[in-house]
Fold this protein.
Amino acid sequence: MMDNILKPGRYIDNEWNAIHKEWKEGMLKIALCFPDIYEIGMSHLGMKILYGLLNQEDDIVCERVFAPWGDMEDLIRKGKASLCSLESKRDLKEFDIIGFSLQYEMNFTDVLNMLDLAGIPIFSSQRDDDMPLIIAGGPCAFNPEPMVDFIDAFVIGEAEEAILEITSLIKDLKSKSKTLRENLLKALGEIEGLYVPGITESNRIKKRIIKNLDNSYFPKAPIVPYIQIIHDRIGLEVMRGCPNRCRFCQACKVFYPLRIRSVENIIQLALESIRNTGYEEISLLSLSTGDYPYLEELICKLEKVFKGTGVKVSLPSIRIESFDGDAGFKVLKKTGLTFAPEAGTERLRRVLNKNISDDDIIKKSRTALENGWKKIKLYFMIGLPEETYEDLDGIIKLASEIQYVNLSISPFIPKPHSGFEREGMDSIDVLKDKIQYLISGFRSKTHKSNHIKIDFHNPEMSMVEAILSRGDKRIGRVIYMAFKRGARLQAWDDYFDYRIWMESLRDCEILTDEYLRKTNIAEPLPWDFIDSKGLF
């Protein structure tokens, strides 16, 4: 069966540290579903946390399911395979709970596809009492409205504590008698941070927050895949939240407030994770790792702990202000360093509440290159509020001054719960004009741009993402129609089909401007009932 499959390693299980439990009567069975392929899902820290946390419970079986690539979907639809869990190869219909991680709006149709491949009705209203409960969480759940027709309940915020309350409640109810789905959902609606469509719609939902990272569960023996995944290393979360208040940033609100993991806890996690996996690289994870207040102390201690072992430490995207060289640390992996100026001029960066000077960007990028970093990557957005073509010129100028740099340039999307949630988005034509302007500008500086590589995010994909992220209940029909037309793995350039989305919007009689225009303060927003401040 696997002869015609591009990467069989996505489907075979038995990786190092995978957890296999016997299915005993009375145990609660949970399938953690990631609506993207194995390499993406296995790189996601949140899934690793929930997988380990749930499997600590003696009376819970927790297994993994990922979206199939097109070749495997073809086999499933021809009846030569099935969408099942990796660990026990059980059909999804045999589980009590199916939990979806909604990390990216372009994966929405993959949620529908996975349900369909599993033989589970796509619409929650069509599921009977024998069907699993479909629960979703993640950043996209902060505007759940586009997916309410398909999901039974949403976890708003951080799931580590909420998921244990959910499982405890369901185990208790199911132990007493056969409980009707409606009664289960009503009971779930009583849990703080849960949005249950049709039951808690009149409530203002407060997000769940983990108060102390040191006291929270963290996986010390994560699964080691057979195939290379996107982030093929140990990921250690050094803090959650962000001390900055960039106006465009949704993650600031989603993960607010800032919580810091202690150096001692990180060192212990690093030692045990390396011992249990054999990995030789650790990535220090957070929204803004350079702002971790004890970063130099932490790296110094990691240097001592792993001296002579070959273990390296990598840093994700960091703020330019927080980078001050590397103090000669040998433990740091100096392949690439990523900064995110976001805008090309100081004026526009002040609008974003991102106060970085051009001199800082240039000097610190050059310092990194001089200190042995192989390349610098800069993130920019185009189509920002108050942007002019002088700001685009600023991108060209900055990159030309640094020279050895990779640029990633994406259209601005006014995401829910961000400081710019009421702003509008540039049209496709305007975005394409700005992209062409930048391309022409770099071509005119060929003597300085030979070592500059530029990656432009697809503006059509960004526009669809914006509609899905800002949508109301009506967008659920669009998602369903796009799925029926064959929309799969839409986060991948190989599969993205703009035509499908435009046809689906047209058939639902929805104009794109309804969700992309600027709104005034008096207009209600679909996600207003979600309180992103939460309780602390």
User: Anything to note?
Assistant: The chain has a mean pLDDT of 93. Residues 2-206 form a domain with the Rossmann fold fold (CATH 3.40.50.280).
